[in-house]
Amino acid sequence: MASRIAYYATAAASRHALPIAAAVGTTTLVGSAYYHSSGTSSLNRVPAGGSLSNFQALTSCEAPLADGRAKEGERAFLKKRMTSMGRFAMQSETSENPSMPTFFLALSGEKPFTVTDFVTQWTRQSMHLLHPRFHSRVSHDDRGYFLQLEDTINAVRAHVSEHLHTFAYRNDLKKRIESCLLEPMDLMDRLWEVQISSGPLGSSGAIGRAKVDASQKESVNSKLTTESVLLFRAHHALGDGVSLGAALSDLCDEAQELREMVQKEIRRRKEKFMKLGFLKKLAKYLQRLVWLCFGSIQALLSHSFLLATTPSSPFDEIRRLSKTTSRKGRSISWCDVAPLDEVKSVAKALGDKGTTVNDVFVSCVTAAVARQIAQHRARMTSLDGTDSNSKQCLALSKNLNVVIPVHLGGGILLPGKSVGNNIGAIVARVPGEMEYTTAASTRLGKVHSALGVKKNSPAPILSFAIAKFCSSYLPENWTKSMFVRSNANASVVVTNTRGSPQKLHLNGHTVESSHGFLPLPPGIPIGVVVQSYAGVVSLSLTAEPFAVPDADQFLSWVVEEYKRLSDEAVQSTV
Questions:
Q1: How far is CA 54 from CA 75, 117, 477, 537, in A?
Q2: Is 393 helix (H, G, I), strand (E, B) or coil?
Q3: Amino acid 51: pLDDT
Q4: Beta strand residue intervals within 246-321, DSSP E
Q5: Beta strand pairing status for 492-498 and 526-533?
Q6: CA angle, 144 then 497 then 295, to 5°
Q7: d(CA 36, CA 76)
Q8: Among candidates 188, 189, 193, 211, which has minimal Cα distance to 201?
Q9: Residue 247: closest CA among 421, 17, 80, 26
Q10: pLDDT tens digit string along 349-373?
Q11: Where are the alpha helices (DSSP H) in 351-455?
Q12: What angle (nearest 5°) sits at the alpha carbon of residue 542, between those of residues 540 and 548?
């Protein structure tokens, strides 16, 4: 039934997730009961017909748990088994590549958005009931379990802090994002945290200057003077980035309206399916079964071919041949690109049937990657003083492998589902370096063909299942190795999240912009998030500095390629 509902909900309902962009673990009582400070357990269970609040009153611990299971002042609630994907997130990360999805929301208002405002909004929207995993941490005794703590205002407040809001336009925020992506988090203390800073509108660069001007023109009855930046980061064990963003849509003032829209769409699709006759339903089930069986074989063979024919990434060679020592850290940037309707028009004008916004920007991003590789080659040739045909020169990259994460729930959380990890991935081979005189639409067509085959296969489901198997049955060092090898020496990962078509609000403050930043998987030096919110498509970049020394320049190349596509689309309609 869950898979059927996911089928109903995937398409239109996914438009209403908060732009950032669930497998739920089995909940058990600790030892089939509750821990007490002595480490023993009580057999008090929920009485038949009893409420959860009454159950808490009967069974919650009156003293901290022994052996570091709960900190002083906390009371244990539930011990919840972590999903296999949550365990995979902890097992597959490395010290250089922690699995820490990060994003920020930029708010505008007449006054600052404070820690108190956040805590008030959190409790008002009943986030502790909708997504109890936010009130959990990894168990000290067994890293395969979450220890869920009883909800209190202080428990929420411990995750939220105020930060100095500086006037170094974009630079300070870049450093804070870099720190969030790389600094380790004590998972036995917390799984997420939020930094809040406030200052004059437009001062941090979180809201672009064009949006600042537009917002001030829209606010006829009030003068917007203040921006507040909410910088979130959470460990992947808590949930994938898309699920975290979708879950935090429940924090918005419009949360109930968004939930009703999703439920309405689910009911519409369910009613449509139920009107089908028995034979048509049976035919759909059989078609799905055949697709899963034969498609899985084809997907495995295709991925095996990529593994066998991609012995290395171009950036492996760049790292090896580079004469300079690159700084540690991350290259960070973000920008708005174009109205969403315009991008859809470009895709429709230039692409085949079914060409998507994601296809357009995978094409633009890979064009920028190709230009970055060419720049590295030119620099190395200049430094070495060698001929471009020298064996020491970086080889021409005619093809690139790209990883596309795929949320198996369509980018939303279905009713009754909490935040979690429900994500697979595909790896596709797309054009790399091409003659600049080649039409941008030529690259787009090839990218669409390559991605279409993969997206219409069971590859995302297979990758999800294999990751679950590895985390459950293989040693941790094997899991790390398989995770690195499975990306087929990809050069870049590109993910796409769809947000609300209208602006959302937090406690009366307008969410002007939102940008998510990928935690780079081991072995992949570039990550790009393509996201839409309030009718605008934006990009964010996370990259290793040796691969992308200038993040702003890289995104400018992406935007240039998009403008080439836009110009070709205009010419095609003349």
A1: 16, 29, 45, 47
A2: coil
A3: 36
A4: none
A5: parallel
A6: 75
A7: 8
A8: 211
A9: 17
A10: 998 888 999 999 999 999 999 999 9
A11: 357-384, 440-455
A12: 110
Q: What was the pLDDT predicted at 387?
A: 52
Cβ neighbors of 491 (< 8 A, separation 6 or more) are 313, 314, 315, 369, 397, 400, 401, 402, 524, 525, 526
Q: Which residues contact 162 (CB under 8 A, 6 or more apart)?
A: 114, 115, 195, 196, 197
DSSP, collapsed to helix, strand or coil, labels residue 502 as coil
SS3 30: strand
Query: What's the angle, vertex CA 571, arms to CA 565 and CA 573, rounded to 5?
Result: 105
Structure tokens at 278: 């028995």
Mean of pLDDT values over 320-348: 87
- At 391, the pLDDT band (50, 70, 90 cuts) reads very low
What's the confidence (pLDDT) of residue 231?
97
Contact in structure between 265 and 17 (CB atoms under 8 Å): no
Q: Are 523 and 547 in contact (CB under 8 A)?
A: no
Mean pLDDT to the nearest integer, 39-47? 32
Interatomic CA distance for residues 515 and 106, integer angstroms: 9
Helices (H), 389-548: 440-455, 459-473, 476-485
553-570 pLDDT, tens per residue? Answer: 999 999 999 999 999 999
Segment 129-138 mean pLDDT: 87
Structure tokens at 144: 């395969």
519 within 8 A of 102, measured Cβ to Cβ: yes
Q: Rounded CA gap, 35 and 66, in Å?
A: 9
List, for residues 143-152, the tens digit of each pLDDT value: 888 887 765 6
* CB distance 528 to 493 below 8 Å: yes
Q: Cα 522 to the chain's mean position, in Å?
A: 16
The two structure tokens encoding residue 258: 């968004």
